[in-house]
Write a structure and sequence with these properties.
mainly alpha; about 10% strand; 6 helices; Arc Repressor Mutant, subunit A; globular
């Protein structure tokens, strides 16, 4: 059973924003796509730990919410590419300060940070 996106009523703007990015991987998908258009396999490699099922589900929801554009190329083998829409880019910009806060938290608590360049 697929979750239907909420359409309100919302308590506040944060509630409406969290509705769109709820889920462990959505903000990370936005971050990965901020680096440019990606094929499914590239996204999966860039997000260690995400299952294929969860990535597909989140991408579909994000497409429904207007954050992600899915382009299917009719060739053999079929090629599918994902990119951010203008709406998705605006959400990424809004998440920027949260990312800054998170980096400060990593430094403050001395947490290890995954070296994403080494994973590619």
């Amino acid at each position: 059973m697929t979750a239907t996106p909420r359409t309100g009523p919302y308590i506040c703007g944060i509630d409406a924003a969290m509705d769109v990015i709820s889920g462990k991987w959505k903000a990370l998908i936005l971050w990965e796509l901020d680096n440019g258009t990606r094929r499914f396999g590239e996204l999966r490699r860039g997000l260690p730990g995400v299952s294929e099922k969860m990535l597909v589900q989140h991408l579909r929801e994000m497409e429904e919410d207007g954050l992600v554009h899915r382009e299917v190329y009719r060739e053999v083998p079929p090629r599918v590419e994902y990119s951010l829409t203008e709406y998705g880019r605006s959400l990424n910009e809004a998440l920027g300060p949260l990312g800054d806060w998170g980096r400060e938290r990593i430094a403050r608590i001395g947490a290890d940070r995954i070296d994403t360049d080494a994973l590619r």
